[in-house]
Every structure is written in C-alpha cells, then in structure tokens.
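Record format v2
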Amino acid sequence: SQQGEEDPQALSIQEGENATMNCSYKTSINNLQWYRQNSGRGLVHLILIRSNEREKHSGRLRVTLDTSKKSSSLLITASRAADTASYFCATDEGGAQKLVFGQGTRLTINP
Amino acid sequence: DAGVIQSPRHEVTEMGQEVTLRCKPISGHDYLFWYRQTMMRGLELLIYFNNNVPIDDSGMPEDRFSAKMPNASFSTLKIQPSEPRDSAVYFCASSSWTVSGANVLTFGAGSRLTVL
C-alpha cells in the first residue's frame, strides 16, 4: 500500500533556487521521514519529524508537518547540482514498525 | 561499519530459475526489511524481521517468494520459480529501534534482478 504520495512527480529548477516537495498521507502517524535516492543507489535517510513537531531543520533542509492536513513538505534551499536525485517521504502508518514509502519526486538541478 | 551489504548487485536469469538474494545488515541492528522497487509500483515492502523473527510478510507477492533470517547477520530472499514480472531492484534495509526511537532505515545498494 502507498501511504505517502509526493507532489510533484518531477521538478526541474536552476542551481541556486529553492526546491519544495510535498507529501500527503492517509492514516495517523508517529513520525514522517524523508529519504534521497541517487540514480542506481540505495535510499539515504535525510530527516525525521515526529508527529508533535511542526518544523525541523537540517543544514539546507527544512521539513514541515501538518497533522491536521496529513501533509508534509521538504524544502531544499540554495540547490546544487549534487541535489539531483529522487526524494521520498515515508510514514509509519499509525505507529507501526514498518515504513511505507511514497512514489517519490524526481528533482533535477540544472547548472 | 561497512553498511548494509547486498549480493549479488546484478542478476540475470531465465524464467523458471531459482534466485537467491543475500543481505548482511549492520551489526547491532534488530530490524531487517526487504523492499522491491519498480517504475510501475514504486517501493513495496515485502517482509520485515525483528530479532530474526518474521513480523509481517503481507507484502510478499505469492508463494514463489520466501525470506529467511537464520541469524542476526544474514538474511536471504528467494524466488522460486522466477518470472519476468519479478524483474526489479530488491533492497535490504536495517535499523535499530532502540537507538533512534523510530525505524530510521539504512539501505543497501540493492540487487538488480532481470528475469528473461
């Protein structure tokens, strides 16, 4: 089952611009995570936000969570060519131990 | 730690053959997950283990798929017999619930399976 749904499916921006990706989910959660996947590689954890948090920062990443709307956003500021990758949100479906991933947003940073 | 290690990285086989994918999780991690990734279906959770015990195998497509974790440092995912629709990238991931208070996954590099 797909818990998280990312929007947009693909995003292309110029280097230096900010990139925003959104994720919507269906059931209650304890936490929501964002992962990055470079082409041909495994996923890499970026950031986790708990259900009682509204915003979290890590370097150039900013994540927000709105549990009333069951949605989250990932903002990457001052994008770089190295940020080109697919980004996935993952949720724990009502506090379960397993993580369910969305379809991902494919981000392309043009130099 | 070398991270999560998967083998083989690439496997090309013919329909009907048995396929075995292997995973070595990070030492000390008590959860192990098997995911499958395709363009059409995205990342699907197949099965996960906690302390070597299968907890949820509801994502395993059918009886042709089986997974084992005989000890804390090794897991296998077996497909027998394989079919072309099994072609995908299979990921193994491990985590330690007690350390992070949540399941933050460390993924392996994946095993790309092509069934002809």
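The mean pLDDT of chain B is 94.
Residues 97-100 of chain B form the longest helix (4 residues).
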